[in-house]
């Protein structure tokens, strides 16, 4: 019998742009169940979310392929409902397919896995001094500096959305090349393997892709 893991997107499920690449890593003996914090909402309803000055900003994708920006606090209750749904459907662990920093407010009978905690535990340990970060939008740059600077490393951040023109990611990669970092983190679950390879080829630096890193950890847990 296949093991079941739950995958929560902060956008809308299914994440056909993300889950297949995770599935390729975890293998065929694992079934991935999906739930989305914005499931059941229209674009107009999401656009009515209010973002205030000090909000923690998140970016994700809707089922129609468009991207949206909103405050983390807008979806906390909806994320809890996703956890309950996945537990009821038999998920043995639950993975947030988002690299955002979430507060410790969720209740679950199962193990919750946060990519952000994995990234911030691993990357500083394998970097000499200077870490490069890709983040989707300019509104997230300040919060990226604040969180990643807790590592004690020198941080460089560029913005380029995984949900827009890939040429913007290419431009950001050339900008990052000039900063001569030790290692690069593409700090959003929306960045894919094609983008990773392009950034690595342009910069000549090692690149960490959250979706496949988390997939490898899940595979290790159930292999």
Automatic annotation (TrEMBL):
Domain of life according to the entry: Bacteria
Pfam families named among the record's database cross-references: AroM
InterPro entries (UniProt xref): Uncharacterised_AroM
NCBIfam families registered for this protein in UniProt: PRK10481.1 (NF007788)
Entry protein name: AroM protein
């Amino acid at each position: 019998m296949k093991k079941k893991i739950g995958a929560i997107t902060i956008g809308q499920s299914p994440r056909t742009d993300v889950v297949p690449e995770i599935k390729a890593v975890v293998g065929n003996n694992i079934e991935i169940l999906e739930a989305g914090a914005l499931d059941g909402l229209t674009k107009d309803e999401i656009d009515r979310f209010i973002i205030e000055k000090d909000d923690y900003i998140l970016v994700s994708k809707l089922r129609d392929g468009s991207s949206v920006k909103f405050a983390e606090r807008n979806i906390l209750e909806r994320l809890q409902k996703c956890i309950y749904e996945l537990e009821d459907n038999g998920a043995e662990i639950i993975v947030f397919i988002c690299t955002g920093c979430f507060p410790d407010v969720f209740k679950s009978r199962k193990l919750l896995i946060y990519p952000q905690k994995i990234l911030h535990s691993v990357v500083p340990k394998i970097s000499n001094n200077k870490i490069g970060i890709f983040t989707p939008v300019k509104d997230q740059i300040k919060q990226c500096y604040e969180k990643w600077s807790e590592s004690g490393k020198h941080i460089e951040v560029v913005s380029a959305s995984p949900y827009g023109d890939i040429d913007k990611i290419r431009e950001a990669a050339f900008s990052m090349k000039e900063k001569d970092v030790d290692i690069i983190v593409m700090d959003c679950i929306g960045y894919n393997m094609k983008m990773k390879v392009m950034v690595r080829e342009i910069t000549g630096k090692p690149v960490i892709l959250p979706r496949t890193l988390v997939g490898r950890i899940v595979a290790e847990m159930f292999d």
